[in-house]
């Protein structure tokens, strides 16, 4: 039987204490023990199933973590207060002063800034490479390298990482492969392709309602236990814990992720094909013109498509801004930086979400200032959306 992440999520059911179809929310920061000995054992990590304090774990957070682990096919998972609250502890847990990371140069701006500006303060150095060039990745590995870091589908350029090949490299040099799968939940299951740790910003497609930030780390029981260790666990000690009420609401939204991803993907593929036919410079993994289209096909779970993200290069920032303002005016979407919402969201990453990346480096990686990143919404009539968007492109002289 094939691994279908949506079925794995649906097969998991937790009941509330009164038989509710949703689990009860654990509205407590601290938990009582019947005996003093059990409290001591819990501190030592030897009392499975006992809760201690909600920064360490809580029932609501565990329910959400287990559902996400089922989705990614990992042993377990730990949820966090934000995507960055998941990513930063993972890197700090895996690396010490003197260690080195090889990372894709096209990654989320915040992750890039953390590796470029923050971790050097504790003498963790990072080499940024073109992740689609395996020779470049291998050449950057040094004897101090501990981690290979990439995004399955990168932000904002939509480069696709060859996770299988990268995991072979990681094994060869005894590194941990950490993959951020925020752009392609359900479509790609990195752990099934050999990733050691999978991280997500739940803020985006997984929660899907743009009402909260959240994150998750999916991995082995051993690694998640290390992150949560009361003495030296980065998640436990840095404290980016998700609140139980939020964990409960994200779990409920997760139940419809498969339906939403199919609609995001169908709509994005439709627009990508139409706008490419119109002669625009469109990047979308579902287009044959995408340099990694064939690779993506070998990695994907075909039911969920190529995802909801696409980019269009309209030439320059002035035109990009005009177009985005006009599309917002016509209620086709919102000028906003996030993604995975029911409504289309768009932004010019060069001057917003990727502005942490210096201009010369943006140029080198092909991040032009006329690039617009679209997170395509759940529009019911995408043909109508297309014709209205095309009208905006004509008005701004992007299309003749
Ligand atoms: C948004 C995002 C993050 C950071 O997540 P937050 O929830 O904002 O902290 C990390 N990686 C990717 C790919 C993202 O899009």
General description of the model:
It is a single chain. This protein has 400 residues and is an alpha/beta fold. It has two domains: 5-254, Type I PLP-dependent aspartate aminotransferase-like (Major domain) (Aspartate Aminotransferase, domain 2), CATH 3.40.640.10; 258-395, Alpha-Beta Complex (Aspartate Aminotransferase, domain 1), CATH 3.90.1150. 38% of the residues lie in helices and 14% in strands. The chain contains 15 helices and twelve strands. The protein has helices at residues 5-11, 36-43, 59-72, 83-94, 109-118, 134-140, 163-172, 221-228, 234-238, 244-254, 257-277, 293-299, 317-329, 359-365, 382-395; strands at residues 76-80, 100-104, 125-129, 145-151, 176-180, 197-201, 215-219, 281-283, 309-313, 334-335, 345-347, 371-375. The strands form two sheets. The chain has a seven-stranded mixed sheet, sandwiched between helices. Strand 4, helix 7 (163-172) and strand 5 form a beta-alpha-beta unit. Helix 1 packs antiparallel against helix 3, helix 3 (59-72) runs parallel beside helix 10 and helix 11 (257-277) packs across helix 15. The longest helix has 21 residues, at 257-277. The N and C termini lie far apart (50 Å). Bound molecules: pyridoxal-5'-phosphate. Pyridoxal-5'-phosphate (PLP) binds at residues 82-84, 108, 110-111, 151, 155, 180, 182-183, 201, 203-204, 213, 215.
């Amino acid at each position: 039987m094939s691994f279908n992440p949506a079925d794995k999520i649906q097969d998991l059911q937790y009941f509330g204490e009164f038989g509710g179809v949703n689990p009860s929310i654990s509205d407590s920061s601290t938990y009582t023990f019947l005996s003093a000995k059990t409290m001591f054992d819990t501190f030592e990590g030897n009392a499975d199933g006992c809760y201690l304090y909600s920064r360490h774990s809580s029932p609501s957070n565990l329910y959400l973590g287990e559902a996400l682990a089922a989705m990614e096919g990992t042993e377990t998972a730990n949820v966090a207060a934000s995507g960055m609250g998941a990513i930063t502890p993972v890197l700090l847990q895996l690396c010490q002063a003197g260690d080195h990371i090889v990372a894709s140069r096209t990654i989320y701006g915040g992750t890039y800034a953390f590796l470029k500006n923050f971790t050097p303060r504790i003498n963790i150095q990072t080499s940024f490479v073109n992740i689609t060039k395996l020779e470049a990745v291998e050449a950057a590995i040094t004897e101090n390298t501990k981690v290979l870091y990439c995004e399955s589908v990168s932000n904002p350029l939509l480069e696709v990482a060859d996770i299988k090949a990268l995991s072979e490299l990681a094994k060869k040099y005894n590194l941990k492969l950490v993959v951020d799968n925020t752009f392609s939940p359900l479509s790609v299951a990195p752990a099934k392709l050999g990733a050691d740790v999978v991280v997500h910003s739940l803020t985006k497609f997984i929660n899907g309602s743009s009402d909260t930030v959240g994150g998750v780390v999916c991995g082995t029981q051993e690694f998640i236990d290390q992150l949560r260790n009361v003495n030296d666990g980065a998640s436990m000690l840095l404290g980016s814990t998700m609140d139980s009420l939020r964990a409960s609401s994200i779990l409920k939204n997760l139940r419809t992720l498969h339906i939403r991803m199919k609609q995001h993907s169908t709509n994005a593929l439709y627009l990508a094909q139409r706008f490419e036919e119109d002669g625009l410079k469109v990047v979308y993994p579902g287009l044959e013109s995408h340099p990694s289209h064939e690779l993506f096909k070998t990695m994907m779970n075909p039911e969920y498509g190529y995802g909801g993200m696409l980019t269009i290069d309209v030439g320059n920032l002035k035109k990009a801004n005009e177009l985005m303002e006009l599309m917002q005016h016509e209620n086709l979407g919102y000028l906003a930086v996030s993604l995975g919402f029911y409504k289309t969201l768009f932004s010019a990453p060069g001057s917003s979400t990727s502005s942490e990346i210096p201009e010369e480096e943006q140029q080198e990686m092909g991040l032009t200032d006329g690039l617009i990143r679209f997170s395509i919404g759940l529009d019911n009539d995408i043909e109508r959306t297309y014709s209205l968007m095309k009208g905006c492109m004509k008005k701004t002289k992007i299309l003749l």
